[in-house]
């Protein structure tokens, strides 16, 4: 019996060894990919240890894969923006921010709630760093009317240090919300301009619209008038074609510029 | 000669230790055939759906079953093929598979027990969802949130399938996790919220999808599917932060 226990002990140890080897399977400085001459190291895409401990190995790999492709996409995008001399002016960014907020149609109450949540989370996390054992009391005092207990646990796991807290922007009114949205809006403007350049030759012929109309309503008992749906079909076909051209452009960029070095990241 | 004898004895001793160690380490055949988890001996075929076939487990995957003591595919009928590990079919007849690359039905049909049946109703609804991320430089992000409901009847059972597609655009690789919940309501009755599963196979670039389905035995008048984005997690490189979501729900009513 003792021998069996000893053997199980050995097997468990070997398994633990294998698992720990998998967890630290890559050297942080090992090069995963190149985008032309730009190296991407494992250190740039690896997940935070505490967050990773909440995931399975498969989920970790998937998220690292996603981070790698985000990095590649960012580099390719910035390079294209540079090559085509694309710029976003301050007024264009302002317009983009205003447009997003208009579409969101946030009520005063919703804006107030976002700001209250951001302040409460900030205060709760500061209190937690000072007294880590008081998570439950802090939740009851500062957050229970705003977010669920599960959400509070998520915040605790994800923003587990004052350094990470510094990356969060606490807001007090709509102007703060808009200010914090400007960087994203700038990227949206730049992407829209780049997409416009890439798809400048895309057009839809009348013949294609007729074909799409016939296909769409071939089984309809009473099809709508062609002229009534012409513009709708035209815009749909145009958008589909634009998306295809953008997708092809990206693929060609990846093909010419990206080289994945590490086998584990090669599949997509 | 003496040295040779000593060496021979050492080799014998080594073999003895090795064999006795192995014999001690290897427990005796512990449980009955097809039963594991010694010493309790209470797990049948590793807990998988299976039958005990000629003293070994016949796992009920890939259309296998135990017939006359043999674990065979499609009841051992050589004229039948296994469709994506789910159903058996005669390759000379029209057949559909529910999953994978088997014969599939047209867009207007659904796979019902191996046969293509017409989908009764299809409806879609889209609303813009807005997520505010506190992360520096991210802020308010708009995403198109679409619910598709498909309803068909399969041998007196009404099946309602739902797909929720979220268009994240260039943010797709920033969204580390997206949890979507869904419920059905009809005639004042409703199901509980369920967490939808990942269903990214048919989505376009910059899109993610979640799916779920229910089977009910009544004809659901006034059927409505409701998708609710429960959480989004933004990955900013140095870490992750949840979003504060507004307009999280999309209602999709079936046409009468």
Folded structure, characterized:
The complex is a heterodimer of chains A (268) and B (256). Chain A is mainly α and 268 residues long. Among the domains of chain A are: 90-182, no CATH class; 200-259. Helices cover 69% and strands 4% of the residues of chain A. In chain A, strands 2-1-3 form a 3-stranded antiparallel sheet. Chain A starts with a helix and ends in an 8-residue tail after the last strand. Helices cover 9% and strands 49% of the residues of chain B. In chain B, strands 11, 12, 13, 14, 15, 16, 17, 18, 19, 20 and 21 form an 11-stranded antiparallel sheet that branches. Chain B has a two-stranded antiparallel ribbon with strand order 1-2. Chain B is extended, with a radius of gyration of 28 Å. The A-B interface holds A 3-4, 6-7, 44, 48, 51, 63, 66-67, 69-70, 73, 100-101, 103-104, 106, 110, 113-114, 117-118, 121, 151, 154-155, 158-159, 164, 167-171, 177-178, 180-185, 187, 191, 219, 243, 246-247 and B 21, 24-25, 27, 108, 128, 130, 132, 134-142, 170, 173-174, 176, 204-205, 231, 233, 235-242, 244, 246-247.
Helix-strand layout with pairing:
The complex is a heterodimer of chains A (268) and B (256).
Chain A: H1 2-23, E1 31-35, E2 38-41, H2 42-45, H3 49-52, H4 57-83, H5 90-104, H6 108-130, H7 135-143, H8 149-158, H9 162-165, H10 174-180, H11 182-198, H12 206-216, H13 226-257, E3 258-260
Antiparallel strand pairs in A: 1-2, 1-3
Helix pairs in contact in A: 5-11, 6-7, 12-13
Chain B: H1 2-25, E1 35-36, E2 43-44, E3 50-53, E4 56-59, E5 64-67, E6 70-73, E7 81-83, E8 87-89, E9 109-112, E10 115-118, E11 121-133, E12 139-154, E13 157-167, E14 175-186, E15 189-190, E16 194-195, E17 197-198, E18 207-216, E19 224-235, E20 240-246, E21 249-253
Antiparallel strand pairs in B: 1-2, 3-4, 5-6, 7-8, 9-10, 11-12, 11-20, 12-13, 13-18, 14-15, 14-16, 14-19, 17-18, 19-20, 19-21
């Amino acid at each position: 019996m003792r021998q069996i226990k000893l053997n199980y002990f050995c097997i468990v140890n070997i398994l633990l060894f294998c698992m720990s080897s998998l967890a630290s399977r890559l050297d942080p400085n090992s090069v995963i990919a190149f985008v032309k001459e730009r190296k991407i190291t494992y250190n740039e895409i690896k997940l935070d240890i505490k967050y990773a401990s909440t995931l399975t190995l498969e989920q970790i790999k998937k998220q690292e894969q996603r981070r790698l492709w985000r990095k590649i996409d960012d580099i390719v995008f910035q390079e294209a923006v540079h090559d085509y001399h694309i710029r976003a002016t301050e007024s264009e960014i302002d317009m983009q921010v205003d447009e997003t907020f208009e579409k969101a149609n946030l009520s005063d109450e919703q804006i107030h709630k976002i700001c209250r949540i951001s302040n409460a989370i900030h205060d709760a996390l500061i209190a937690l760093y000072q007294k880590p054992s008081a998570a439950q009391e802090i939740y009851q005092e500062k957050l229970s009317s705003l977010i669920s207990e599960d959400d509070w646990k998520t915040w605790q796991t994800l923003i587990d240090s004052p350094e990470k807290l510094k990356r969060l922007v606490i807001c007090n009114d709509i102007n703060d919300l808009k200010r914090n949205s400007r960087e994203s809006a700038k990227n949206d403007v730049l992407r829209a301009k780049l997409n416009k350049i890439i798809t400048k030759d895309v057009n839809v012929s009348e013949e294609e619209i007729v074909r799409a109309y016939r296909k769409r309503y071939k089984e309809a008992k009473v099809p709508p008038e062609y002229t009534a749906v012409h513009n709708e079909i035209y815009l749909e076909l145009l958008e589909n074609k634009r998306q295809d051209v953008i997708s092809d452009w990206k693929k060609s960029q990846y093909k010419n510029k990206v080289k994945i070095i590490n086998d584990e990241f090669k599949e997509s | 000669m003496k040295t040779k004898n000593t060496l021979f004895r050492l080799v014998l001793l080594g073999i003895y230790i090795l064999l006795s160690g192995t014999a001690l380490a290897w427990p005796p055949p512990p449980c009955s055939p097809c039963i594991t988890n010694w010493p309790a001996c209470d797990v049948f075929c590793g807990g998988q759906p299976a039958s005990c076939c000629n003293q070994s487990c016949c796992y009920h995957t890939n259309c296998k079953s135990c017939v006359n003591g043999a674990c065979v595919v499609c009841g051992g009928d050589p004229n039948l093929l296994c469709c994506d590990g789910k159903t058996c079919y005669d390759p000379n007849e029209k057949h559909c598979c529910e999953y994978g690359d088997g014969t599939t039905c047209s867009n207007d049909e659904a796979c019902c027990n191996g046969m293509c049946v017409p989908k009764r109703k299809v409806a879609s609804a889209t609303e813009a969802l807005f997520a505010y991320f506190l992360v520096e430089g991210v802020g308010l992000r708009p995403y198109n949130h679409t619910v598709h409901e498909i309803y068909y009847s399969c041998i007196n059972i009404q099946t309602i399938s739902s797909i929720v597609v979220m268009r994240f655009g260039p943010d797709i690789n920033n969204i580390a996790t997206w949890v979507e919940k869904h419920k059905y309501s009809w005639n004042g009755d409703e199901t509980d919220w369920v967490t939808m599963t990942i269903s990214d196979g048919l989505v376009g670039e910059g899109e993610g999808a979640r799916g779920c389905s229910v089977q009910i035995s009544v004809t659901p008048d006034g059927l409505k599917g409701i998708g609710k984005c429960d959480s989004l997690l933004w990955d900013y490189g140095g870490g992750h932060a949840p979003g504060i979501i507004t307009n999280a729900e999309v209602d999709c009513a079936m046409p009468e």
